Amino acid sequence: MNWIKEPVQPISLEFRQAAVDRQGQLTKPPGSLGQLEEIAIRLASMQHCIKPAIDEVQITIFAADHGVVEEGVSAFPQEVTQMMLANFVAGGAAISVLAKQQSALLEIVDVGVKGEPIALANVVQAPVAKGTQNFAKHAAMTEQQCALALAAGRDSVDRAIVAGATLFVGGEMGIGNTTSASAIACALLGGKPELLVGAGTGVNQTGRLKKQQVIESALELHKSKLSSPLSILQHLGGFEIAALVGAYLRCGQKGLPAVVDGFIATAAALVAARMAPELKAWLFYGHQSQEPGHKLLLSELGEKPLLDLNMRLGEGSGAALAISLLRTACLLHNEMATFDEAGIPA
Fold first, then answer.
1. Cα separation of 208 and 112, whole Å?
2. Is the C-alpha dihedral spanning 21, 15, 49, 34 positive or negative?
3. Residue 32, SS3 per DSSP
4. Which of 48, 71, 286, 291 could form a disulfide with 319 if both were Cys (CB 3.0 to 4.6 A apart)?
5. Cα Dmax for the chain
6. Could you tell me the pTM of the whole model?
7. pLDDT at residue 71 tops 70
8. How far is CA 5 from the centre of its chain?
9. Residues 178 and 292: beta-carbon distance below 8 Å
10. What is the mean pLDDT of the chain?
């Protein structure tokens, strides 16, 4: 676990200023491209250059099951998690389509799917266990299991860097994981479940109340143990959420920009940011989820998402859609003419 204490790479203030200066010379009114200007400036500071670029992108989906499903908190049976692995590989899932559109490398990592593993090409087998324990009755995972799941995220980013990735997108799949993310969010924010719990995969109002009750009970059960971000993750998290935490930490340590997806991914990002506050400089937030807790998490992080499309799918889908915005921001920054080049008086 010593690796999680490695320092986050600093961004370059020198190249940030150089990018700001370039934006001021482009043939447009200052600030007229809004967030696109800030995206390019941030990427320049991350990549330590004046003209940043998003070339190779890795999208990694971490999949795992959750013992808390025993409490009846999901609209779908747990077997769907494993079924979706085959759908990802076959190209039938939303993230598969989006990865193809973006010419991104799509990696699927099994960090704890219940049932016997299915021999699928392009699925990295890194199972910690066959799903977490039911956090309504026990800690979701042991310290050792949490460490293994964090390391699975770290290893995915290391593979991405070897493959030449200039951007990392993390996604998740796991029936029951909105319940886990909601519990983590409540513990981190000190919020009430009724403010943070949403429909997830589509539960009705009765199901939503059930999720709230399960989380309230679990927070009471584990309250003496929820003293640190890592302990919160261990007691209430999922293996795929822990893998996302590890991935985001590694992105910061290795200087790789990352786009965070929706509610579940942002819960992981907040855990990681509480562990290493400097990490926030390396994270973009792809979209605003329909899950009510997402706004509260983003507010705590002080972040504004790039898109708001009323989505709540997960899989990294909202983050994948934001890749085009990042690439467009770079193109505008790099290829627009300056006033001098265009012969236009500034």
1. 25
2. negative
3. coil
4. 286
5. 70
6. 0.97
7. yes
8. 20
9. no
10. 94
Residue 49's nearest CA partner among 12, 2, 77 is: 12
Provide the 3-class DSSP secondary structure of residue 260. Answer: strand
Tokens of 237: 């998290």
Q: Residue 66: name the closest of 241, 258, 283, 266 by CA.
A: 241
Report the Cα 108 to chain-centroid distance in Å.
Answer: 14
Q: Name the residue with tokens 């020198």.
A: 14
* Half-sphere exposure of residue 210: CA atoms within 13 angstroms, side-chain side: 16
Residue at 149: amino acid letter:
A
Report the catalytic residues. Answer: 315
Q: Please answer whether residues 68 and 179 qualify as being in contact, where contact means their C-beta atoms are separated by less than 8 angstroms.
A: yes
Give CA 96 to chain center in angstroms.
17
User: Could you tell me the end-to-end alpha-carbon distance of the chain, in angstroms, rounded to an integer?
Assistant: 54
> Could you give the CA distance from residue 153 to residue 272 in angstroms, rounded to a whole number?
12
Domains of the chain with CATH codes:
11-52+331-342 (1.10.1610.10), 57-325 (3.40.50.10210)
The sign of the dihedral angle between the CA atoms of 90, 95, 100, 105 is negative
Report residue 196 as tokens. 């943070």
Q: Which residues contact 150 (CB under 8 A, 6 or more apart)?
A: 1, 4, 242, 243, 245, 246, 249
Q: How many angstroms separate the CA atoms of 340 and 219, rounded?
A: 61
pLDDT at 199 exceeding the cut of 70: no
Look at residue 48 and tell me whether its pLDDT is greater than 60: yes
Task: Give the pLDDT band of residue 202 (cuts 50, 70, 90).
Answer: low
What DSSP state is assigned to residue 26?
A: B
Quote the pLDDT of residue 210. Answer: 78
What is d(CA 139, CA 129) in angstroms, rounded to the nearest whole number? Answer: 14
Within a 10 A sphere around the Cβ of 198, how many other Cβ atoms? Answer: 18
